[in-house]
Each structure stands twice: as C-alpha cells, then as structure tokens.
Write a structure and sequence with these properties.
The protein is α/β, with parallel strands linked by helices and 413 residues long. 42% of the residues lie in helices and 16% in strands. Helix 2 runs antiparallel to helix 11, helix 3 packs parallel to helix 11 and helix 4 packs parallel to helix 5.
Length: 413
C-alpha cells in the first residue's frame, strides 16, 4: 500500500539552495589551475570557457612549498618507485617506508615519541577527539568557543560531557574545571592560531590550568606548523611550551604545501588512537608520493627559516598598507590578514569584482565559517607574492572600497 502523502524531495532541495542564495552565502567554485613555478599566479577558466590570468590571495600554501624543488623531487622519486596509490589501509598493505619516515619526521619536529598520519587534519581532529572518549570513559572535554569545525565534530561525535569556554578566556576555563568531579578524566581542546581572526591561543596559561586540574591538553597547530618556531613546529615551540602539550594536531596541506594531517604525542597515546580510531583504521593511507613530498617539506623547513622570516615580513607590509587606507583590518599579529566587511552580499560582490576587474582571487568568508555580521575577505600573503602584486592588491582594494561606498575604519586590534 502506497503512502497517501510522500515527501517532495526536489522541492526541499530547491528550498534549501534558494535559502543560501537569499542570504547571499551560496558558494561557487571557480576553476583555477596553479601555474607551477609561477605561483601565486594561476589561470582561471570562466564558465564560458574563456581564460584569465589571476593572482591567488587566499591560498593556504602559505610558504609556496607546493612548488618547491625539494618537495617535487621527493614526490617524483616516490612515484617512480612505488606508483600512484598506497594499495590499502595502514593495517592492510598501506604502510610503507615513506609513511614511517614521515611520522618519524613529525615526531621529531614536535619533540614527541610518536606521530600518526591521517588523510587530513580535519580527520585527525575528528577521529582523535571522538576516540579519546572510548579510551578514557567518562572523559569531559573543555573546548574553546571558536574551535574549528573538525574539533567540534570530534567532540560531538564522541558523545559524553563537554564544556565550552569563552574564547581564550582562561579564567572561564578554570571556573568550568573547578565545578567538575576532580576524579573525572579531562581534556582541554584549543588552537594556537584561530584562522578567521588570526589571534593566538594562550598555550602556556592553558597548560598551567591543565596541570592544576589534572587535564590532558589537545592543541591544533594547523595554521602555525611550518611557519612559527625555530624549526617550524608552531606557536608552542615558539613559546617554549611544546613539551607541556599532550597531543598536537597539524596539517601537511598548508605551510608544508602537500596533503594530509597528523597528531604527535606519546607512543602509548598514538598507539591507542591508531588501534581504536575508525577514521584511521578504515581509511586508505596517503599515496607514497604524497608522504614522501610531505616528509621532504617538513625536513627542509626544520633547518631553513628564510621562508618563515619573509612570510612574516610580507604579512606586516600588507597589513600596514591596508591600515594606511583606513580599511578595517583585524590584526592580532599573525600572518593572516582579514578585512572586515560585515555583509555577505557585499563580501561576495567585492570578491567577484576583485576577480573580474583586477585578476585578484580572494574568496568571501561568510556564515557558518564566521558569525553573521562578521563576514570578511581573508588574505594570505606569502613569500612568493612580489612587491608589485601587493601594490596591485592595495590599489584594487582602495578603488573598490570607494566604488562600493563602504566605511573606512580604524584597524581592529
């Protein structure tokens, strides 16, 4: 017997998509081809098939390592030796000498006994945080209010008790810890750089509170690895507190220019996650060529700080010049350069005009990535952006801010 009323799936899909259009936050992908050897230059293929040379200003290949000869050579060699794919999960034929070498590099980078590589930092966060609840029954997780979606998902999926502390508010974190059972297992999850505002987490202060209440610490260094600290291990290394963090999460897809994510921790902690996390157990491992390229990138950036220094200089120059125009820059001292717009429609319009009229590619950052009313353009300068490209961007922003009659304001500190 057929049901009297059936769900109109097509209409529901239409309504869901139309809602995004109405709110000005429907996202489109643009077809760009990075120009190896000339990055940040790329070629944009429009929907009509025509092409335009553009400069990428919103990439996460922060140091340009995705085109570095050391990385490419390692990938070519591994590809020639091992072929394209890994052939299986890590438990079933997917562990190779390239994976083991990469994990050894990462453990050494963070001063930990071991590391574990995942297919992305998102999966590393999700799989690890959700699995910790299995390993430590009754675990209470204290999560910063602005943690990345992958951390939120891992905490949620694991079930159990969670506490949200106000962003970077150590006093509030301490209040929450003090209210809970002293005997309960606890973990504090937070980030070193929050990528939408570019502000830093108070790692040392959080480690102090964790020690006071017997809590583990879980630090996401995704937007800092490769770029901060004497060997590029991140903000915890820069601040001299890396040894106090129990689990460090990082990515191989941003400053290291390749692909994948990882955790670094004690040998026992890594062994437990490796043995219990479905997101690790049931996922095919990285292709050997990717693992080889990532290891080469990590190894190179441990000893060469030239790109890190130039990266910081470029970010300071861009922020200084945009501030001089009176644009509302959010500046917390990191390499990330957000320009506050505050309206999703205006944000998308600015992005479109920059691309069409000036050959500058920067994606609008809208809800749910950031709260409504805080929409922004987020620029990521790199060592491979030349002075003339910074000039072009600054002039284009000045023209468009006038054209769109947007307010000029003091920088946001």
């Amino acid at each position: 017997m057929e049901p009297e009323v059936t769900m109109d799936y097509e209409a529901t899909l239409d309504a869901s998509l139309q809602r995004l259009h109405d709110e000005g936050r429907y996202r489109t992908f643009i077809d760009i081809a990075r120009d190896q050897g000339r990055f940040p230059h790329a070629v944009w293929t429009r929907p009509d098939g025509s092409q335009k040379d553009i400069t990428v200003w919103c990439g996460n290949d922060y140091l340009g390592m995705g085109q570095h000869p050391v990385v490419l050579a390692a990938m070519h060699q591994a590809l020639d030796e091992a072929g394209a794919g890994s052939g299986g999960t890590r438990n079933i034929s997917g562990t190779t000498r390239w994976h083991k070498a990469l994990e050894a590099e990462l453990a050494d980078l963070h001063g930990k006994e071991a590391a574990l590589v995942f297919t992305s930092a998102y999966i590393a966060n999700d799989a690890t945080l959700s699995t910790l609840r299995t390993i430590f029954p009754g675990l209470i997780i204290y999560s910063d209010a602005l943690n990345h979606a992958s951390m939120i998902e891992g905490v949620r999926r694991g079930g159990g008790e969670k506490r949200i502390f106000r962003h970077n508010d150590v006093a509030h974190l301490r209040e929450l810890l003090a209210k809970d059972d002293p005997a309960a297992p606890k973990l504090i999850a937070f980030e070193s750089i929050y990528s939408m505002d570019g502000d830093f987490g108070p790692i040392g202060a959080i480690c102090d509170v964790a020690a006071e209440f017997g809590a583990l610490t879980y630090l996401d260094e995704v937007h800092a690895v490769g770029m901060y600290g004497p060997r590029g291990a991140g903000i915890a290394e820069r601040d001299g507190v890396m040894h106090r963090v129990d689990i460090i999460n990082g990515t191989l897809a941003k400053a290291y220019g390749v692909f994948g994510g990882y955790i670094a921790a004690s040998a026992k902690m890594v062994d437990a996650i490796r043995s219990y996390a479905p997101g690790f157990i049931f996922t095919t491992s990285l292709p050997p060529a990717v693992a080889a390229g990532a290891a080469a990138s990590v190894r190179f950036l441990k000893t060469d700080s030239t790109l890190r220094a130039k990266h910081q200089t470029q970010a300071k120059i861009l922020k200084m010049r945009l501030k001089a125009l009176g644009l509302p820059i959010i500046d917390h001292g990191s390499h990330i350069v957000p320009v506050h717009v505050g309206n999703p429609v205006h944000c998308k319009m600015l992005s479109d005009l920059l691309l069409e009229d000036h050959g500058i590619y920067v994606q609008p950052i809208n809800f749910p990535t950031v709260p409504r009313g805080t929409e922004r353009l987020r620029f990521t300068p790199s060592p491979v952006h030349a002075a003339e490209e910074i000039d072009q961007l600054v002039k284009a922003m000045d023209v468009l801010w006038n054209h769109c009659a947007l307010n000029r304001a003091e920088a946001v500190a």
